[in-house]
């Protein structure tokens, strides 16, 4: 009794997010009030270039995005044929979504790569996430990857996220309004797919 006369002690002086610690991380009895919001779990960050597989599609995608040398036909072929694929579930990208006060994890999985031949995963930092290889590598313009309503041919946010930036929200992938299905139906994607063929 009387140990904590000055109120709860700061348990972690180095953490900038100490107020967001889960109740279980705080010493029992010291801090009674639970944080209003559980901190959002962080998806794994991307890996540096020297740590990803040499066939990680992100290496080529990043080059295209940065305006580097245009990929040669041979490089494009190899990107499609020898593309790195996650071989364990923990290598697939995830996103977290709040439902009923709990964070739920949604993930891309092998079934998606199987269903959509153009879908690829990158672990390269900065471009880590999911990509449409057809659109990201075979596009001839940046149009169509823009914001909602641009160019009237289905240039929407979903397309932007698979074409000019990685998809990192995996909460609604398939089904009528799933972003993968919707992407496959855009004119932009169809035009890129013709170039691949
Ligand atoms: Zn596409």
Structural summary, described in words:
By secondary structure, this protein is an alpha+beta fold. It has one domain. The protein has 7 helices and 4 strands. The chain has helices spanning 57-65, 73-81, 110-115, 133-138, 157-163, 179-184, 187-196, and strands at 94-99, 102-107, 119-122, 129-132. The strands form 2 sheets. The chain has a two-stranded antiparallel ribbon. A two-stranded antiparallel ribbon has the order 3-4. The chain binds zinc ion. Residues 118, 132, 134-135, 162, 183, 189, 192 line the site of zinc ion.
Please write out the topology.
Blueprint (H helix, E strand, L loop, with lengths): L56 H9 L7 H9 L12 E6 L2 E6 L2 H6 L3 E4 L6 E4 H6 L18 H7 L15 H6 L2 H10 L1
Antiparallel strand pairs: 1-2, 3-4
This protein binds zinc ion.
Zinc ion binds next to helix 4 and helix 7.
């Amino acid at each position: 009794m009387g140990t904590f006369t000055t109120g709860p002690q700061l348990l972690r002086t180095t953490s900038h997010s100490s107020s967001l610690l889960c109740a279980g991380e705080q010493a029992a009895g010291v801090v009674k009030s639970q944080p209003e919001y559980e901190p959002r779990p962080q998806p794994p960050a991307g890996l540096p270039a020297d740590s990803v597989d040499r066939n990680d599609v992100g290496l080529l995608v990043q080059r295209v995005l940065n305006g580097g040398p245009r990929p040669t036909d041979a490089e494009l072929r190899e990107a499609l044929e020898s593309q790195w694929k996650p071989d364990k579930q923990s290598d697939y990208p995830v996103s977290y979504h709040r439902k009923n006060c709990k964070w739920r994890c949604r993930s891309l999985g092998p079934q998606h790569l199987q269903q959509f031949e153009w879908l690829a995963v990158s672990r390269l930092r900065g471009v880590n996430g999911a990509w449409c290889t057809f659109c990201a590598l075979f596009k001839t313009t940046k149009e169509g990857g823009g914001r909602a309503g641009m160019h009237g041919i289905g240039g929407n946010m979903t397309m932007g996220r698979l074409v000019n930036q990685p998809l990192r929200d995996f909460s609604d992938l398939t089904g009528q309004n799933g972003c993968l299905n919707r992407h496959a139906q855009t004119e932009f994607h169809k035009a890129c797919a013709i170039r691949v063929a």
